Amino acid sequence: MENPFKFGTIVDGSYFTDRVEEQEKVKQVISSENHLILISPRRFGKTSLVQKVMKSLERPVFQLNLQLVTDTEDFAAHLLKLVLRKYPMERLKHLISHFRFIPTISTNPMTDGIELSFQPSVDSFVLLEDVFILIDKIGERGEKPVVVLDEFQEIKALDKNLDKKMRSILQLHSHVNYVFLGSQESMMEEIFEKKKSPFYHFGYLMKLDKIPYDDFLVFLKKGFCELGEKTEVENVSREILAFTRCHPYYTQQLAFQVWTLWLQKGYMDTLVADASLLLTQVHDMDYERLWATFNRTDKKVLIGLNMNLGSPTSLSFLRNQGIESSSTAFSSLKRLSKLGYVIKNDVYEMDDPFFAQWIMKHR
Ligand SMILES: Nc1ncnc2c1ncn2[C@@H]1O[C@H](COP(=O)(O)OP(=O)(O)OP(=O)(O)O)[C@@H](O)[C@H]1O
Ligand SMILES: [Mg+2]
């Protein structure tokens, strides 16, 4: 028997659940004249969702993770490589007549990969602009391409004026749909929601939520169904979701561990508790190191969140945790959210349930 749960990488097929409405929404937006901006905390399933939709399309898709890109020139090179991989040079020849630079293209027979280099003196924004124009031309002549830029918040770190330049280039193109994904919510909001930002209101903003409880429950029960009795499967699945609060990644991680334990040792009432303790222990050193980086207010806020004391800026929370004022608590929450340790859905909560357990165990 193979473990039916998977975490850490993109999921599809039997590892992927729900997101029916979201898939529909993504399709709808990119079938229109609009661009899509998809935001969520880390590991909620943005890349998996978008990949799933892209696979179902019969349009050219160019997908690039900006975390892998080092600067503007590298960005242009990566993008051009994606295009070259899809279209033979012969077909592109008449489409690249606008190129203000001549790239040197070679193939590596060992890896079957394409190598690209540019003359050193070319302005890197020009390189990027020409590649984007090429993609728009491809759309003009045939199927409209979709360009997916994952971890888009990275453009802030790539080059100082890249956002401005990109916006000025992209706004001219009407034969491409762009999809921007990002996990640093505050940075993505700054890029797409701040009035002063070049990308202000550039497309349809979609926020990805956790997977709904009932859907995740069905998914978990299906994964465990061959291991035990119906009531055992039901209890274990519910216990997992109570612990992970439906966080997509942590739910799959814990379910994976529970499944392994269950298979090894048979059913026990403590399966979920044992598995979660095991996973918390694995990260003991990381959590200890991390904990040491927080200031005193951060620590008080995190502990309070795990004690379910209500809103961290409420009087009772502040009093109980000995925090001077709601503004102190608020700036701590902002800091912790920016770093991804705290997420806000209906309420503030810790992102990582294992870290939350570690904190409570050590208090
Ligand atoms: N639809 C889904 N059904 C089940 N599990 C999912 C689903 N989407 C995501 N997951 C779980 O979450 C993990 C992370 O998914 P993915 O990498 O797509 O998220 P992400 O938001 O792109 O993450 P990151 O912020 O790291 O880029 C997956 O490995 C899987 O365990
Ligand atoms: Mg991703």
List the helices and strands and how they pair.
Blueprint (H helix, E strand, L loop, with lengths): L19 H11 L5 E4 L6 H10 L5 E5 L6 H15 L2 H4 L11 E5 L4 E5 L6 H18 L4 E5 L4 H4 L3 H9 L6 E6 L2 H9 L10 E4 L5 H12 L5 H15 L3 H18 L5 H12 L1 H10 L2 H11 L8 H7 L4 H13 L3 E3 L3 E3 L2 H9 L2
Parallel strand pairs: 1-6, 1-7, 2-5, 5-6
Antiparallel strand pairs: 3-4, 8-9
Helix pairs in contact: 1-2, 3-5, 5-7, 9-10, 10-11, 11-12, 12-17
This protein binds adenosine-5'-triphosphate and magnesium ion.
Say which molecules are bound, naming each kind only once: adenosine-5'-triphosphate, magnesium ion
Q: Compute the CA-based radius of gyration.
A: 24 Å
**What helical percentage do the residues reach?**
40-55%
What is the averaged pLDDT score? 94
The spatial strand order of the largest sheet comes to 2-5-6-1-7
Structural class: alpha/beta
CATH-defined architecture of the largest domain: 3-Layer(aba) Sandwich
Number of helical elements? 17
Structure description:
- Helix content is 52%, strand content 11%.
- The chain folds into three domains: 19-207, P-loop containing nucleotide triphosphate hydrolases (Rossmann fold, 3-Layer(aba) Sandwich), CATH 3.40.50.300; 213-282; 284-361, Arc Repressor Mutant, subunit A, CATH 1.10.10.
- The protein is of the alpha/beta class and 363 residues long.
- A hairpin with a 4-residue loop joins strand 3 (104-108) and strand 4.
- The chain has helices at 20-30, 46-55, 72-86, 89-92, 124-141, 155-158, 162-170, 185-193, 213-224, 230-244, 248-265, 271-282, 284-293, 296-306, 315-321, 326-338, 353-361; strands at 36-39, 61-65, 104-108, 113-117, 146-150, 177-182, 204-207, 342-344, 348-350.
- Strands 2-5-6-1-7 form a five-stranded parallel β-sheet, with helices on both faces. Strands 3-4 form a two-stranded antiparallel ribbon.
- The chain contains 17 helices and nine strands.
- Magnesium ion binds at residues 46-47, 150.
- It holds the Pfam family ATPase_2.
- Keywords: ATP-binding, Nucleotide-binding.
